[in-house]
Design a protein that fits this description.
This protein has 129 residues and is mainly beta. Helix content is 15%, strand content 49%. Strand 6 (98-103) and strand 7 (107-113) form a beta hairpin. The chain starts with a helix and ends with a strand.
Length: 129
């Protein structure tokens, strides 16, 4: 009998600790698509982008894909509500890159074209909470 009560206390404590570690208990997140394009194709030296590894925490981490990476490039991720979606790409040559951030693969949240050929491009948008 005492073992069962002790186990119940341990389980209750674990549930409370788990709930307190959860900074986004509703799991509200956004399906984000990052795109990087150039009119003539080409390659990228690297691409970095933000994503939430766990939809129940507000944490957003940066991932990097090192090149050569073919253009067009596309990545689907999840970003916790109220956090910044961001993608940065660097070309290997004189490409004029354009990046876009799409919500649910359809609604354009951000679009930026690099100011000069050969330069990096960055798109960012804080998601609604």
């Amino acid at each position: 009998m005492e073992i069962k009560q002790g186990l119940g206390i341990v389980l209750a404590a674990g549930v409370l600790l788990g709930a307190s570690a959860c900074s986004n208990p509703s799991g509200k997140s956004w399906a984000i698509t990052y795109e990087v394009t150039d009119a003539n194709g080409g390659t990228l030296s690297d691409v970095s982008f933000a994503q939430s590894p766990d939809r129940y925490n507000d944490e957003v981490k940066q991932d990097t894909v090192t090149g050569p990476v073919g253009v067009p490039w596309k990545q689907e991720v999840v970003v916790a509500a109220g956090q910044k979606a961001e993608v940065t790409a660097k070309p290997t040559g004189d490409l004029t890159l354009t990046c876009r951030i799409l919500l649910d693969g359809v609604k354009e949240l951000a679009k930026v074209t690099a100011p000069a050929a050969g330069g990096p491009v960055t798109c960012e948008k804080t998601t609604d909470s």
